[in-house]
Specification:
alpha+beta
C-alpha cells in the first residue's frame, strides 16, 4: 500500500506541475479528458501466474483517476476548498460502484498506460470511463466504468459532507477560471447571471461508450444522463 500511494504522490506532483505550466492555455474540453497515464507492472503487482493480479487492475485505475484530477485542475479546486473551510463545494471524489472487464493479461515488467475520461453525468454522479492499454501493441487489456460521487459541503464550516451535483462542481471550476474557453464568444457568455450548465458542457465531453449508457440504465433507470453520444446512435 505504501508503494502504491508513493506512486500516486509522484503522479499527482507531476500532474499538478503540468497543469500549472499550461494553466493559461488549458481549454475547457480538458476538464473531461482523456488523460493518458503511463506505468508498468511491478514485482509486487504479479501473482502466482506471473501476470498482474486482478486487484492491481483496480489500483491502476485509481492511479489514472488521481493523475486525471491533478492534470485537469480538479485537485487544485478541491484542495483549496479543504484548506478554506469557509468555501462550499466539492472536497473529494468517492467511487460508489464500478464495472471492470478483464480482456488481456499483463506480464511482469510490461509497460502499459491508463486512459481516463469523464464521459457522462447525471443529477448526482459523474461517470468515469477508463481503459488500460498495452504500450507496445496498443491493445486494450481492461476497461472500467466508475460511478463517482463528489462529496463536499453546502454550508461554510460544515462537517456534514453531502453529494455535490456535478453541474455545481464544474461550474465552480469555471468560476475559478481553471480553464480557458474555446473562443471569446463562449467566454463572454460565462457570467454569474447566465451560468454554464451541464447541457452546455456535454459537447466538450469525449464520446460516451454505449456499454456505459446500458450500465447506467440498469443501475439508475430513472436517471437523466448528459453525455456526448456517438454519431452512429
Amino acid at each position: 500500500m505504501f508503494r502504491f500511494y508513493t506512486k500516486v504522490a509522484k503522479k499527482v506532483y507531476t500532474g499538478l506541475t503540468e497543469y500549472n505550466k499550461n494553466k493559461n492555455v488549458n481549454m475547457i474540453n480538458s476538464m473531461f479528458g482523456p488523460c493518458k497515464t503511463p506505468t508498468k507492472v511491478g514485482f509486487f503487482d504479479i501473482d502466482v501466474n506471473i501476470h498482474m493480479n486482478n486487484a492491481k487492475f483496480l489500483e491502476a485505475m485509481e492511479l489514472g483517476r488521481w493523475d486525471f484530477c491533478a492534470r485537469n485542475g480538479m485537485l487544485k479546486v478541491w484542495y483549496g476548498n479543504i484548506r478554506n473551510k469557509a468555501n462550499v463545494g466539492a472536497l473529494f471524489p468517492v467511487i460508489a460502484s464500478c464495472n471492470l472487464k478483464f480482456l488481456k493479461q499483463l506480464k511482469y515488467n510490461e509497460k502499459y498506460y491508463i486512459k481516463t475520461s469523464i464521459t457522462a453525468v447525471d443529477d448526482k454522479y459523474a461517470y468515469f470511463e477508463q481503459q488500460l492499454y498495452k504500450t507496445k501493441s496498443n491493445k486494450c487489456a481492461a476497461k472500467m466504468f466508475g460511478k463517482t460521487a463528489l462529496l463536499g459541503r453546502t454550508e461554510p464550516y460544515s462537517s456534514n459532507f453531502v453529494v455535490i451535483p456535478p453541474s455545481d462542481v464544474f461550474q465552480d471550476m469555471i468560476d475559478k477560471k481553471i480553464f480557458s474557453f474555446i473562443n471569446d464568444e463562449d467566454n463572454d457568455n460565462n457570467n454569474n447571471s447566465n451560468p454554464i450548465t451541464i447541457n452546455d458542457l456535454a459537447k466538450f465531453m469525449p464520446p460516451v461508450d454505449n456499454d456505459l449508457l446500458e450500465w447506467i440504465k440498469l443501475d439508475r433507470p430513472k436517471s437523466i444522463v448528459i453525455c456526448n453520444r456517438n454519431d452512429d446512435e
